[in-house]
Automatic annotation (TrEMBL), chain A:
Family matches, as InterPro entries: ABC_transporter_permease (IPR051393), MetI-like (IPR000515), MetI-like_sf (IPR035906)
GO cellular component labels: plasma membrane
Pfam family name, one: BPD_transp_1
Biological process per Gene Ontology, one example term: transmembrane transport
Keyword Nucleotide-binding in record: no
Protein name: Sugar ABC transporter permease
Signal peptide: none
Transmembrane domains' residue ranges: 24-45, 84-109, 121-142, 162-182, 245-265, 271-296
Source species of the chain: Agrococcus sediminis
Family indicated by similarity: Belongs to the binding-protein-dependent transport system permease family.
Location in or out of the cell: Cell membrane
Gene3D superfamilies attached to this UniProt entry: MetI-like
From TrEMBL, chain B:
Membrane topology, record value: Multi-pass membrane protein
Compartments reported by the entry: Cell membrane
Keywords, ordered alphabetically: Cell membrane, Membrane, Transmembrane, Transmembrane helix, Transport
Organism name: Agrococcus sediminis
Pfam families referenced in this protein's UniProt entry, alphabetically: BPD_transp_1 (PF00528)
Organismal lineage: Bacteria, Bacillati, Actinomycetota, Actinomycetes, Micrococcales
UniProt name for this protein: Carbohydrate ABC transporter permease
Any GO BP: transmembrane transport
Transmembrane region(s): 12-35, 75-97, 109-128, 140-162, 183-208, 242-263
Gene Ontology cellular component annotations, sorted alphabetically: plasma membrane
Residues annotated as domain ABC transmembrane type-1: 71-263
Length: 305, 278
């Protein structure tokens, strides 16, 4: 191949990529885009719109826009706000505990301990299980007479007859522990990945300068880990706020565990109030966006300073 | 100094052991419960290990909860979903990774956005849409929902794998005069195989484990998926038949556990390298 041929081929390549790339990309993308548009984007837009209508279940119902009526109704709907508060407590506690526990575990898994490989595999177990089965398993663990939790407490001389999922004072905390358990693998693995990206030379330099383990953690590890921490806690918070199956099977929303998704599900598919349930969805989106906005802005500011 | 270091190490081992107990013990408990007799389960002084490893609970659970039928439904839905997801996300992922067009921004935006929206907003219109075209209470309708639901993540994963294959390889193939499709089939596809396996496993497990959409869409008992049937079993018989409930759950968890055992090494290393690249 002569130099001229190469130049021609190069030009040909370049021309083709200028000319046909955009169209080629769209064509390749079409089979994935059509179902997403039809069954994801379109229903989502409809869902947002439904939140401004009086839609109900049933065949011959005329659906009419009713403006902000749903939101006026929601404002005075005490049970909904109650559930909303439970959702916030649940999402904040699960995300925070999950983060602290996963960070500790990730640091341990990154500390060159003996049996690290086995530990990493075991740490993935909850990830491998469907939420429904996680909930069933923990119902057994928390069973008042048979459960291992009461069994263990009894062995330690503590009260061993607590009906964890059957009373208002313990149901939500118990569900939070189960939520933490279920979400730990993703958080741990992501943080572990971040830890392995932390510059080892910086650590060594700090060590030579006489920094203690704790000082190195605060001034080297944490700042390097910051983007990963922000990303995973954000995702965890959204996931936890939108959580459904776990608590549906654990308590079905009884004893002060009625998460917003359970509430909206009941509103839509038990009572048939499609419009009102969609309005709840809209409110949830706005509140999540609100929290994320402040969280991400605070993080961005923190990085600048 | 030396002694402090060893003490620190010892504490680290204690801490990691506690984490492992917390994460693994519930599964051990589920496992042993599945083999216990009703008398053992109701004993005032329950033991961790069953007196005898008997399989009665498994037989009873399979029959009572009609697990075979539900597992068949779940398997069918998960396999078809996986096939469709792979077939349509492969070209799209290639386009996303190789052509830096407006498409890329749009797709990224959608992938992120689709994570934020609560399912309730999307499921009501879907429910209203699928009913009139006969897909309301059907496994086909469930497949449609699962395909769309797992596409964003599958696309994102797969485009990462495509991006990790050097463009130079393709250009070298093109230089040698091979047509584009040959380059794709004989150079890109083999290199993409691990990525395709990982993506299909995620799609499969996602569909196998999913509960919410199935709960809303599937009303016929004969069409229920495994998670749905199990959730019902909790309320119906699971209150008293703890052993059967555990046995049924254990059986239903096996495919997911097996898949994760198979891919865990790749999963950890893949996620670890992927996240570092940012």
């Amino acid at each position: 191949m002569s130099a001229v041929d190469v130049v021609v081929a190069e030009r040909g390549l370049r021309r083709r990529s200028r000319f046909g790339a955009e169209r080629g990309a769209w064509l390749l993308f079409l089979p994935a885009m059509l179902p997403i548009l039809a069954f994801s984007v379109w229903p989502l837009l409809q869902g947002i719109a439904l939140g401004f209508t009086n839609a109900t279940a049933g065949r011959d119902v005329v659906v009419e826009f009713n403006g902000v009526q749903n939101y006026v109704d929601l404002a005075g709907y005490e049970l909904f706000w109650n559930s909303f508060g439970i959702g916030l407590i649940w999402a904040f506690s699960v995300t925070l505990i999950q983060f602290v526990a996963s960070l500790c575990l990730a640091l341990l898994l990154n500390a060159n301990l003996w049996g690290q490989g086995v530990a990493r595999t075991l740490a993935l177990i909850p990830w491998a299980m469907p939420p429904v089965i996680i909930a069933i398993m923990w119902r057994l663990m928390l069973h008042p007479t048979y459960g291992a939790v009461n069994g263990g407490m009894g062995a330690l001389g503590l009260p061993d007859n607590i009906n964890w999922l059957g009373q208002a004072s313990t149901a939500l905390p118990a569900a939070i522990v189960v939520g933490v358990w279920a979400g730990m693998p993703q958080t741990t693995i992501t943080l572990l990945a971040g830890l392995q990206g932390v510059n080892a030379e910086l650590h060594e330099a700090a060590q030579i300068d006489g920094a203690s383990t704790w000082q190195r953690f605060i001034s080297v590890t944490l700042p390097a880990l910051r983007p990963v921490i922000v990303a995973i806690t954000t995702l965890d918070f959204i996931n936890n706020f939108n959580s459904f199956a776990l608590v549906y099977v654990l308590t079905a929303g009884a004893w002060g565990t009625m998460l917003p998704m359970l509430f909206a599900y009941n509103e839509a598919f038990r009572y048939g109030n499609f419009g009102l349930a969609s309005a709840m969805g809209n409110v949830i989106v706005i509140v999540i966006t609100f929290f994320l906005f402040f969280y991400l802005r605070a993080q961005a500011k923190g990085r600048e300073s | 100094m030396r002694r402090r270091v060893t003490l620190g190490r010892a504490l680290q081992y204690v801490a990691i052991a506690l984490f492992m107990v917390f994460l693994a013990f519930p599964l051990v408990f589920l496992f042993t419960t599945a083999f216990k007799t009703q008398a053992e389960l109701q004993s005032p002084d329950p033991q961790l290990l069953p007196a005898q490893w008997n399989l009665d609970n498994f037989a009873a659970a399979i029959e009572r909860a009609n697990l075979v039928q539900a597992a068949g439904n779940s398997l069918l839905v998960a396999v078809v979903t996986t096939l469709i997801v792979v077939v349509i996300s492969l070209p799209a992922a290639y386009a996303l990774a190789r052509f830096r067009t407006r498409l890329r921004k749009l797709a990224t935006g959608w992938i992120l956005l689709s994570q934020v929206f609560p399912f309730i907003l999307i499921i009501i219109p879907l429910y209203l849409m699928l009913q009139p075209i006969g897909l309301g209470n059907s496994l086909a309708g469930l497949v449609v929902v699962y395909v769309v639901w797992s596409l964003p993540f599958a696309l994102w994963m797969l485009q990462g794998y495509v991006a990790s294959i050097p463009v130079d390889l393709e250009e070298a193939g093109a230089m040698d005069g091979a047509p584009k499709w040959r380059v794709l089939i004989s150079i890109v596809l083999p290199l993409l195989a691990p990525g395709l396996v990982a993506t299909s496993l995620f799609a499969f497990i996602g569909a196998w484990n999913e509960f919410f959409f199935a709960l809303v869409l599937i009303k016929d008992e004969a069409l229920q998926t495994l998670p749905q049937r199990l959730a019902l079993f909790v309320g119906a018989e699971g209150q008293v038949q703890l052993g059967q409930l555990a046995a049924a759950s254990l059986l239903a968890a096996i495919p997911s556990l097996l898949f994760f055992a198979l891919i865990q090494r790749r999963l950890t290393s893949g996620l670890l390298s992927g996240a570092v690249k940012g």
